[in-house]
Amino acid sequence: MRRRQRFWENLPALLGVLAALIGAGFFGGCQVQQQVGAKDPVTVTTTQFVTVTAPAAPAASGNGNQASPSADAPSTASTSGAGSVQWTGKVRLGDVDLDTVPPSQVAYMDSDVGYNGMSRTLGIGPRAAETGSLAVASAGSRPTQQECATLLTTQGTTRNLQVTPGESEVFCVRTDRGRTAFVDGFDGQFVTVTVWAK
Fold first, then answer.
1. How far apart are CA 191 and CA 167, in angstroms?
2. Three-point CA angle 183, 187, 96, nearest 5°
3. The model's pTM
4. Residue ranges of the domains in the chain?
5. Cα(28)–Cα(41) distance, integer angstroms
6. Contact present, 67 and 96 (Cβ < 8 Å)
7. Which of 56, 123, 72 is nearest to 96 (CA)?
8. Which of 162, 169, 164, 166 is CA-nearest to residue 184?
9. Cβ of 177: how many Cβ atoms within 10 Å?
10. 129-170, pLDDT tens digit by residue?
């Protein structure tokens, strides 16, 4: 009987100590200190990581002057150094600056290469007249940068070359900034362009 009375008398004090321990994080697992060896405290800290997934940013709307890659032939861009593909994809026929990423429709005076639908010819634009050139590659081929560079050096011209939409004609191009590219897949509205990094 005496023991029970002592227990009930000490219960409030025990509850107070228990509450203090919980408040200090003793049972929370956030931080534990333990004596090891010669009084060196060891601290263990738990860390929680949160992963957040954000939706992709919406594509910026163009100004109507950029060449539009086709939805069925996605374009790619890479800037990993000389000899690598800078951009590849479909470009609308017209006057084009091949040095931009992606190649963009520009005024005739600012073009590297241009297509004349009336005469069905591909030609070097005024911007590239001094340093640019065109050359015909083997029909249906997929020339490398080196093959195009060699072809442009040995057979390059600045005159207009005849194009037949729907045929498997391939043209190598050197831009005014010295980049090498090839153009093929003329379908009367778009061409496929591959531009290599300088």
1. 11
2. 45
3. 0.60
4. 2-45, 76-196
5. 19
6. yes
7. 123
8. 169
9. 14
10. 889 999 999 999 999 999 999 999 999 999 999 998 888 999
